[in-house]
Amino acid sequence: MHRIFIPGITPPIQNSEPAWWFAFVGNQLLVRQEETISHIPYLVSLEEIGLTPVRTQFLGTLDNQPCYSAELPKDTLLPNGMSLCGLRELYATLDDDIFMLSGRAIQIVEWDRTHQYCGHCATPMTQLSHERAKRCPSCGLVNYPRLSPAIIVLVSRGEELLLARAHRFPPEMYSILAGFVEPGESLEETVIREVGEEVGIEITDIRYFGSQPWPFPNSLMIGFTATYAGGVITIEPQELVDAGWFHKHNLPKLPPPSSIARKLIDWFVATH
Question: Where does a divalent metal cation 1 bind (predicted)?
Fold first, then answer.
């Protein structure tokens, strides 16, 4: 059962109760690892474990408990028993709600770090009190946290689905096709273009499936299904190592169950 997260901008007036701290050195999260489970600090402040952040951001509350993100100095000395890990490494070891908040946190930390000054006139930016945005007090430029929308699509042919291996994938793992939306494109146009560019086939019957925040580094992954309409698989070698049709009862190593890619694949196996 998912816990209830309520986004917020303004921290509690009395900062005296324990909070979840999503503390980052660069793009690595501070965690305590116990066998196959990872935990983030649950403290009144990071000073309790000897850490002084460069800056912090209030995220909101998780089941009424405050949540903060924090940027730590690059030369941070880690507390005993704690380590730094990238979010991809923690995908299967963090609680689902904590992982999703970790993705939110790293994007806000990075946005705050890279928007200290106005990109138009170089004046120090001011955090607005009523929304997650910064305004330049000199020229009025307003900046919001950036999102880069991307599509991900399961292409099917009868009881087969199209799977591919990208260069960055772990050994032997296959997944469905994905790509970023370009300026001026609709989501459906992106689906058609990405499939054509990466594997050279035509598709039809494009349908929306669902979406998932994807903090690698700041994407919103928008899922679709589509049906094969023609053509022979011809991979784009700069994007893919391999691609092919796989029967639903004979699948290779797949992405983790919590990913939208796996949710699409599991849905296909269950319904076709």
Answer: 178, 198, 239
Pair 245, 268: CB distance under 8 Å: no
The string of pLDDT tens digits covering residues 155-174 is 999 999 999 999 999 899 99
Nearest alpha carbon to residue 167 among 257, 262, 243: 243
Q: Which residues are annotated as a binding site for Zn(2+)?
A: 118, 121, 136, 139
Alpha helices in 53-183 (DSSP H): 96-114
Question: Could you tell me which of 180, 191, 247 has the C-alpha nearest to residue 218?
Answer: 180
Percent of the chain at pLDDT exceeding 70: 100
Annotated binding site for a divalent metal cation: 178, 194, 198, 239
Which residues are annotated as part of the binding site?
88, 118, 121, 131, 136, 139, 144, 178, 194, 198, 212-219, 239, 261
Q: What is the band of 196 on the pLDDT scale with cuts at 50, 70, 90?
A: very high
Q: What are the binding residues for substrate?
A: 88, 131, 144, 212-219, 261
At 205, list the tokens: 């019957």
Residue 1 has pLDDT above 70, yes or no: no
CA angle 263, 269, 272 (to 5 degrees): 125
